[in-house]
């Protein structure tokens, strides 16, 4: 199979074919999602929440992101694999940003990195791109700055914030980003950004006018108990499925019904 490239993603924007993206954090999930035909797999720092059980994305380390990325890369033969630079590995220091990005590329074999922020991190983005590493931007709700905002509610609802987001999106494009994620902003604002940029805009909670969509896979398959924001479409209730399977297994073990004659040597 032919590997998805930034060039192909750019062509998809031009032809109007929507880009499908989901997060993945391990080999097994990556093999299924890659088989299904996802265009992009994101090793998101949401691993901090859904894999490690932290309340925020801040604690996850570069080493941990690389570990997750290694498994995803081994499982993905077609999808373009993007890895989040974790909090503290790039902010305000372009040299450190570059060395973090290089570690991810070298040690995991991923195809690109994603960083949260706009004009403040343009220096870092340019430096990473100069080294030949594709960069995806991320604007709107940026979970690494949760303590600056205090909530995970919709962003850029007022005019000033919306203008800043548009400026940031243009700055990311000018810096050379191959795509930008817009998280949890009004659909009408995302529409304007998607129309004004020539690079793909991937939305999460940003309406239907983006060039592609991304969701956290654990949320999308219903494995994240009690998390159901408006933007989330839940395709499975895997929490209930696994609960039922685990309970059936317990019952069989207790009843001495497992293993049976065929399930032994
Ligand atoms: O870490 C993550 O899952 C993300 C997506 C929500 C875009 O950054
Ligand atoms: Na992220």
TrEMBL record:
CDD domains: KPHMT-like (cd06557). It is found in: Cytoplasm. Pathway: Cofactor biosynthesis; (R)-pantothenate biosynthesis; (R)-pantoate from 3-methyl-2-oxobutanoate: step 1/2. GO terms for cellular component: cytoplasm. It catalyses: (6R)-5,10-methylene-5,6,7,8-tetrahydrofolate + 3-methyl-2-oxobutanoate + H2O = 2-dehydropantoate + (6S)-5,6,7,8-tetrahydrofolate. GO terms for biological process: methylation; pantothenate biosynthetic process. The active site is at 183 (proton acceptor). One of its GO terms (molecular function) is 3-methyl-2-oxobutanoate hydroxymethyltransferase activity. Its EC number is 2.1.2.11. Pfam families: Pantoate_transf (PF02548). It is an enzyme of class 2 (transferase). 3-methyl-2-oxobutanoate binds at residues 45-46, 84, 114. Binds 1 Mg(2+) ion per subunit. The keyword DNA-binding does not apply. Transmembrane segments: none annotated. InterPro entries: Pantoate_hydroxy_MeTrfase, Pyrv/PenolPyrv_kinase-like_dom, Pyrv_kinase-like_dom_sf. Keywords: Cytoplasm, Magnesium, Metal-binding, Methyltransferase, Pantothenate biosynthesis, Transferase. Its cofactor is Mg(2+). PANTHER family: 3-METHYL-2-OXOBUTANOATE HYDROXYMETHYLTRANSFERASE. Homodecamer; pentamer of dimers. Catalyzes the reversible reaction in which hydroxymethyl group from 5,10-methylenetetrahydrofolate is transferred onto alpha-ketoisovalerate to form ketopantoate. This is 3-methyl-2-oxobutanoate hydroxymethyltransferase. It comes from Pedobacter hartonius. The lineage of its organism: Bacteria, Pseudomonadati, Bacteroidota, Sphingobacteriia, Sphingobacteriales.
